Amino acid sequence: MTNPELSARHFIRALRGSEGAGVTAGLRARLAERAAAADLLDVAYRTMDTPVGSLLLAATARGLVRVAYPAEGHERVLARLAERISPRVLWAPARLDPAALQIEEYFSRRRREFDLPLDLGLSRGFRRDVLACLPDIGYGVTASYASVAAAAGRPKAVRAVGTACATNPLPLVIPCHRVLRSDGTIGGYVAGGAVKRVLLDLEAGRTR
What we know:
208 residues, Double Stranded RNA Binding Domain, Arc Repressor Mutant, subunit A, two-stranded parallel ribbon, 8 helices, 13% strand, globular
């Protein structure tokens, strides 16, 4: 029986400790269920393997809040989520199953658009305006930083668009990888240029 008096710190310690070897996925799931029942689960997370490495997925009650590549450091990302949202960041993979399924479908070329509730609370101001424009760049299509700046209402803010893309908390799902430099070169990407090229080639139907 779930004890509602158990502290958030107890659950966080138990769940994070359970990620080590020798603890079953079933036990982790039961711990996550207990945390949810005790209203101690503010940010659920899981990881998944993809062609571009292990992705960290995190969600709040509002929706998917973070997608992180290995290059970002999953532990650093989790620590940042604990600081900015809540310290009750818990391993609860079932909460992320719909997102993981859609990402798998994307990489198998069976999905061109994501249909997930999103929590954009980690992005504010003009950066959030930029993120709102990015889903309008269709699958297999690219746009320049300058054109995104214009679409976001600040045509001269090209560098700010670059910053918004670089700090996109939901890369892949919000497609900042489709934004290129005006000369057609690939530009930067949080996971590196090689990963950005993989995604563009995938959407263009090119095999590597």
